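## Example record

The block below lists the input lines for one assembly entry, exactly as stored, with component labels intact.
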Amino acid sequence: MVEKSTFKVKEGLARMLKGGVIMDVTTKEQAIIAQEAGACAVMALERVPADIRAHGGVARMADPIKVGEILKSVTIPVMAKVRIGHFVEAQILESMGVDFIDESEVLTPADEQFHINKYDFKTPFVCGARDLGEALRRIGEGAAMIRTKGEAGTGNVVEAVRHMRTVMGQVRHIMNMPDEELMTFSKDIGAPFELVKLTKEMGRLPVVNFAAGGIATPADASLMMQLGADGIFVGSGIFKSNNPPARAKAIVEATTHYMDPKILAKVSEGIGEAMKGLEISLIPKEELLASRGW
Amino acid sequence: MSKKPLKIGVLAMQGAFEEHIQILDSMGIETIEVRLKDQLADIDGLIIPGGESTTMGKMLNRYDLLEALREKGNSGFPMFGTCAGMIMMSKKVEDGLPGQPLLELMDITTIRNAFGRQIESFEADLDVSEIGERPFHGVFIRAPIIKCVNGTVDVLARFENNIVAVRQDNLLATSFHPEIAGDSRFHEYFVNIVEKWKEMHGKD
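Predicted structure tokens for the full assembly:
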């Protein structure tokens, strides 16, 4: 019997991306640069988060023409973003053959109550999370991959670190928890009990967990990997720097050799200036992207 | 003197290398993650995992492992490639990237993403008589297929007439992912190849 688009092949694709770097790209030229650098996938979008932040207004799914061009220009998997709750944008991307859909807080939410029922789709989904409860709620809705939210478009890794430490800390906490405490813990973090139990059994988040939101340097990538990320998303960090091909390549190498400081030093040399970056505490609260989604 | 236990390297440039290591661990086999040339020194076999073949190829090239692995593979050293690993071991890849670095070890021509994009990914039971009567559950993710085989390549499994598992001497390759199938028979089969090779050629 042949079974297509099972959860196993969805979360399986996420496993195949592990140890790799997924790069935000807005044109086919950028997609080719990313592939040349060794990206394991690209994220097709209209504007990188730093520009979304600067432009303001409603940020939506990218123009299908653009997504189509990027799909044709590279052989690695292509992801694309939809607004939280906007299942029609997801239907459109699925019909185009996009390999992974990111239901993303970086775009303006379309629904302030409900996320997409990701089981309705053949295409796997990745979703952002700040803590274990949020991650398990998204998995409960059918997400096949999780990433930290971080604070996209800032070039500041501090929020991604916070979110990764929170998730990993909560997993460690569950590991030491007697089974009779799991139900109350599930209720407290607002997560499905069965997934909390599964997390304890597996000793990790039940699906692949990447770091995202503010990664700008090879050292940032290694930091997130050492904190337990399975791989790295880089958004504005590459194409907002002054030498994207060199930086992209360096971040790919830093993600593979994340435990080797000598290689990290070498790949960090002479790759030009990183994006300028933003201090999180100076961003008005209502402009923070991580608080979108629930 | 007791024999030195087997040690199998798992290429860890990118991809599902942890999954292979977990299976070998459960079989009591010692493993090492391979990212640099010196990590090849005292291994008895190498697994190239599923992942992104273009990423792996570039990293092998940049870290000077391509030639070292090619030499090993050509000298009869046991290697097992799954999905991207199979692509890496192919002599020829149709629709590969121009200049995509390959190990060019097995006399097979591979087509990348042969079934289409991710929405075409699937699971199916396969008959693989080499590893036993019970079907093996194949997980195919943006999977390649083997278009043609030459020379001394044995076909181990087909899916709807497409060749999806092959062996040539001590080289083993599958277009699906035994590392996430929950079935260790392909790994046992490979370990068996490694043991035989070690008995004949290995130092202890």
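Chain B touches chain A at residues 12-19, 35, 50-52, 54-55, 58-59, 62, 83-84, 95-97, 112-113, 116-125, 139-142, 177, 180 (CB under 8 Å). The mean pLDDT of chain B is 95.
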